[in-house]
Specification:
Length: 200
């Protein structure tokens, strides 16, 4: 089965390709099919993921999968949430992972409440008109460190500390990260849904 991934993020593609390999699902990034980014006007991950999946499926005629993910910080009432990718721009920095981490650490200075969750919401559609999208959510809860630690991963991985492991996501191998990450959890739940609803 071929699915269009409604994202141009190379990190997401690599993670999801690895996670979906057992199903024999081939993921193709939408940019490889000439599809531009969808509008993401909504305030929840699920609405934005659905909009992205419908956009990619409508443009390609293929089944589509979209991931909307972000960091939800307890001390900020769950923000940045759906604005995670653009977090740094709120503080005068250019968009990008490094600047997002920098802005977050600056905003967290003096905060004792450092609990946060990385959240991934996956939505899959058989077609743009699919009335029954598959929806899977994963959450990885940890603590925001006071400085980046580790070289692996992307996004907020260097500052997302997992107390049960004593390490950040950026200190884990890709395999260990996928076993625990928000995206890994969502992907495994999505695989189960696809097996049950689409492939049985």
């Amino acid at each position: 089965m071929k699915l269009v991934l409604a994202s141009n993020n190379a990190g997401k593609l690599a993670e999801l390709q690895q996670l979906f390999a057992p199903l024999g699902v081939a993921l193709v990034r939408q940019s490889e099919l000439g599809v531009g980014e969808a509008e993401e006007p909504f305030r929840t991950f699920v609405e934005n993921a659905l909009a992205k999946a419908r956009h990619a499926s409508a443009a390609t005629g293929l089944p589509a999968i979209a991931d909307d993910a972000g960091l939800c910080v307890d001390a900020f009432g769950g923000l940045p949430g759906v604005d995670t990718a653009y977090y740094a721009t709120q503080f005068g920095y250019a968009k990008g992972d490094g600047n997002n981490v920098r802005a977050l650490l600056e905003q967290m200075q003096g905060q004792t409440q450092r609990r946060a969750a990385l959240v991934s919401t996956l939505v899959a559609l058989r077609s743009a008109q699919d009335p029954e999208p598959l929806i899977a959510v994963g959450r990885a809860v940890g603590q925001i460190t006071s400085e980046p630690i580790g070289e692996n991963g992307f996004g907020f991985d260097p500052v997302m500390f997992l107390p049960e492991l004593g390490r950040t996501f950026a200190q884990l191998s890709a395999q260990d990260k996928n076993a625990r990450s928000h995206r890994g959890q969502a992907a495994r739940a999505m695989l189960a849904l696809m097996r049950e609803r689409w492939l049985s």
